[in-house]
Amino acid sequence: MNHATPDVVSVDARTGEAVEVIGAESTPAEVAALCAAADAAVPALAALGVAGRAALLHDMATELEQDGETILALADRESALGLPRLTGELARTCAQLRFLADVVTEGSHLGVVIDHPDPAAVPPRPDLRRMMVPRGPVAVFGASNFPLAFSVPGGDTASALAAGCPVVVKAHPAHPATSLATYGALRRAAVRAGVPDAVSLVHGQAAGVALVTDPHIAAVAFTGSVRGGRALFDLAAARPEPIPFFGELGSVNPLVVTPAAAAERGASIAEGLLGSFTLGMGQFCTKPGLAFVPAGEHGTALQEALATRGADAPTGTLLTRSILAAYAEGVRELAAQPGVRVLAGAEPRDLAGRATPTVLRVPGAMFSEALTEECFGPVTVLVEYATEEELLALLGRLPGSLTATLHMGEGEEDLPRRVIDVVTRRTGRVVCDGYPTGVAVSWAMNHSGPYPAATDSAHTSVGAAAVQRFLRPIAYQDTPQRLLPPELRDDNPLGVPRRVDGVLAGTATSPTG
Amino acid sequence: MNHATPDVVSVDARTGEAVEVIGAESTPAEVAALCAAADAAVPALAALGVAGRAALLHDMATELEQDGETILALADRESALGLPRLTGELARTCAQLRFLADVVTEGSHLGVVIDHPDPAAVPPRPDLRRMMVPRGPVAVFGASNFPLAFSVPGGDTASALAAGCPVVVKAHPAHPATSLATYGALRRAAVRAGVPDAVSLVHGQAAGVALVTDPHIAAVAFTGSVRGGRALFDLAAARPEPIPFFGELGSVNPLVVTPAAAAERGASIAEGLLGSFTLGMGQFCTKPGLAFVPAGEHGTALQEALATRGADAPTGTLLTRSILAAYAEGVRELAAQPGVRVLAGAEPRDLAGRATPTVLRVPGAMFSEALTEECFGPVTVLVEYATEEELLALLGRLPGSLTATLHMGEGEEDLPRRVIDVVTRRTGRVVCDGYPTGVAVSWAMNHSGPYPAATDSAHTSVGAAAVQRFLRPIAYQDTPQRLLPPELRDDNPLGVPRRVDGVLAGTATSPTG
């Protein structure tokens, strides 16, 4: 054992005690070797074909389920998120692997386009066939708050593998034992598929830096803080060969209650908002951190309901002691801003090391930029607006967010439309009459948004389109059938959806098509 | 006139003489005002709808054609590219505007996906509807070598406008009068459409820097040198809010001649290669700068044919005096590398200020990284390989390229397949038995490639997919029909292609579907 290499320690989130040493931090040489092995695995992963990769993802889900009991116990110990939540998260993680397998099996993600030659075009057009190919090895940074669904076996790993890219995961230090256990399950499936280097795991902050700067790494996927994410983004951009960095960083997720909604169902919104900002002890990237409520009788009633319910909300354990410390500090900073009043919540951190849910309130006229920074944990800031114009002006000052939520009155149209117009330029998902903290895994999901919600708002980290991050196009010009990938051959042996000579296969461009 | 602001001068490329002052360089305040106006124009451009924007693009093409005679005369004076070539380029530019209008009229670029609610899903799925929306104002940097098709009215401007993004163009200093004239034509169409700020024009290097760092700019499109492009890329990445930088930088465009191809038609390949690397005096981003030819009788014959023909190739005027100086310097550096011999070409720059086509040759064993840097102008380097293994190893050492070309024998399969496997990881387009210098504008074209060919190999700057650079997704969750964009409404009033509940509209997912 190299005593120059720090231990990787698994900590019990509830007690703060170190439970076991699960290994040593990865050395630069180890990281380089794993990245080279990942690069060498690109052809083998390609050779599996879409069907083989889909089978690999299904097999990985099965392996995770087989180790479910062990994985859940470790994840609960390391995250304190509780078995019910984690059981759901494991199901989601496995469903996500299977969903992405189905997505790539259909083949539309390949974006196959075939243009037959057209000598009459200006300039004359040769035979051109375009499809998406894997970028190469992907570095994935697991997040603290979803030790399964956004960590080693999470959406980034699943979509990179689905795209055909080997993955090197940097384990999150908050749950190294969970990371190792889930990696073990994925690895068994990879070995069985004959591509053992399709997934590997590294530990330690220095290993993360080594990963992002390794010449074999072709793209990075990251979920975490603005500070950590931006530092890695900067490294990726500064490389001799810059690589794309798909980071999901910070988001305040504004929620708007129109006067009509407050009048119709203020109490129920107060209850829903409380449930949303305290879900998982506020440790969701989609937690509503700012709620715009109208001044006046109904808005005041909503505030009072939230104050009363918030004061009764239970304290809870956060993922790590450092997250707890950051929460306490963040709440104090928010509360110290001009005009901010505490509606519910005592000390943000109690003597037992648990976090206290907190509701703050500020008049719209006193709103400041300091209130737009994400504070991870169970706190939300109510912003009381006096007029519609003030509301729209305030929304126009917000940074990019993953979500923007709107509660409106029955059949209300004018104000909701104006709100949606403003937030559409600043968010990746608009939620109506609901709460943003659920993130469905589906074809239409978008989990992204203008910076700092994401480093590239054109890409989602959840849903079918997540696969696109790890693909790039290539065109083959005048290439004989015998040398084309099967997806581009005239006979389309894999039956992938295609656009041929400008026409989407199977769709009609005219009534007679 | 502010005498602190440098003049913008139009130079006759053939004489090197300044012909006229066409204005002053843009001040930082002017750039900021134009970017703010572009940002304010986003809603108006959106309000035109896809049909309105398509009409705008068609109108722009018509305006360019109406001013064609003036534009062509200016472009010929400023570029020395000659009226035949420029007449073709204007036709291509107008065809490109109309093609992209047709692309967005179809609507598939919006990537509309509708998932109806599914309470049985894990986690339960709400109603989710996803589509692409414009990123916001785009900065476009015109290229020197295509004063029309990759400049003010070029593919970047056309695809940004098609996507719904206002454009601020930084004129290339090599053709400011052409830039002003083409801008005038675009502007007339924009004014008529009621969105005068949809396109604007700035001049000067400082204005370019101001553009890339302006907070209203949401993306940058650039075609030019590695050095200039990388400097701007770094600025874009270092902003407080980083923005995507779609740069097409340098490319050596390797061309491979297999032994079988050399035996079958070496002389014709020599002729074709000469035509390709001297086309437009070698000032194409897709110019084949490296050609791998086999050792032995047929390869030697090919080399000799190229040496003979190359020696007779006419000298020509380059775009600017500084490009000529860089060409002369670049050729001298290439020729000074170990093992390099000059097969054709005397002094790269003659006394009349014209460039001399040059053919160099190096044995594969002496190949070095210094030979992989793009040298803009009519020069190509033949690399003589002794064995197939040496060829594949050499190809594996090349940086990213826009294209890779393969000349093979009739029915040849094994070596071509191995070459394609290697170059697929390093290029954006594989050309078989042809030449890379034509870039068709079509659905399947890809004009991109791993760095330094492009700063993001996932995006093309030519073809239908070029529009995608300027779009980002947004999802609407549980949003009432009355508040949805028409593309997402159940009745699909615009008839855009959509995926509904996982099924691509109009396509069958099973034989009975």
Automatic annotation (TrEMBL), chains A, B:
Pfam family, one: Aldedh
Span of domain Aldehyde dehydrogenase: 24-406
Classification via InterPro entries: Ald_DH/histidinol_DH, Ald_DH_C, Ald_DH_N, Aldehyde_DH_dom, Aldehyde_DH_Superfamily, ALDH_KGSADH
Domain of life according to the entry: Bacteria
Keywords: Oxidoreductase
Span list, region Disordered: 483-513
SUPFAM superfamilies: ALDH-like
Protein name: Aldehyde dehydrogenase (NADP(+))
Lineage summary: Bacteria, Bacillati, Actinomycetota, Actinomycetes, Streptosporangiales
